[in-house]
């Protein structure tokens, strides 16, 4: 199986902060012409990127064979990543059903490439959040993890 480039897409024009101070907006994954969960997916973008940053940091340092779930908050969707080698991760894009899991797409990618895509999306979002002068504990945590991951590169 060929290695694929994966893009974490965040549309900063779509974001808004709800009354609970959660930032919601478009966040989805793009691999070639495949979108997951779908193009334009709206979800809790700050929380999700925080989770994904922690996962990619752990995957880099964990043993081969370790599996992590890259969750979305809304809906039955998640991406499952299994460390195949020191530099490669196998990805399954999954829809939970009431009695089973449906794998809708699979691919391999470089751990470093997935990490960079998560970092790029996070940086883009953080720049927008700062320009809007939005603050919350989740935003501070996202920024803290982003800075740590940047320093590890």
Features:
153 residues, alpha+beta, Secreted effector protein pipB2 fold, 4-stranded antiparallel β-sheet, 3 helices, 35% helix, 37% strand, globular
The CATH architecture comes to 2-Layer Sandwich
- Please report the first level of CATH classification, the CATH class: Alpha Beta
Helix tally equals 3
Give helix and strand order, one letter per element, not per position. EEEEHEEEEHH
Protein name: IDEAL domain-containing protein
Detailed description of the structure:
The chain is of the alpha+beta class and 153 residues long. It has a single domain, classed as Secreted effector protein pipB2 fold (2-Layer Sandwich). 35% of the residues lie in helices and 37% in strands. It contains three helices and eight strands. A hairpin with a 5-residue loop joins strand 5 (67-71) and strand 6 (77-83). The chain is globular, with a radius of gyration of 15 Å. The mean pLDDT is 95.
């Amino acid at each position: 199986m060929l290695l694929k480039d994966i893009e974490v897409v965040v549309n900063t024009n779509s974001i808004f902060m709800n009354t609970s101070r959660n930032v919601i907006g478009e966040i989805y994954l793009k691999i070639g012409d495949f979108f997951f969960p779908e193009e334009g997916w709206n979800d809790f973008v700050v929380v999700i990127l925080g989770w994904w940053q922690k996962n990619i940091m752990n995957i880099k340092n964990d043993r081969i064979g370790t599996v992590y779930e890259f969750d979305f908050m809304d809906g039955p969707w998640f991406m499952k990543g299994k460390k195949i080698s020191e530099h490669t991760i196998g990805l399954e894009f999954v829809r939970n059903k009431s009695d089973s899991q449906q794998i809708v797409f699979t691919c391999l990618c470089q751990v470093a490439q997935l990490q960079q895509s998560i970092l790029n999306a996070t940086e883009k979002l953080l720049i927008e959040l700062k320009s809007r002068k939005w603050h919350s504990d989740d935003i501070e945590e996202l920024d803290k993890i982003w800075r740590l991951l940047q320093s590890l590169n």
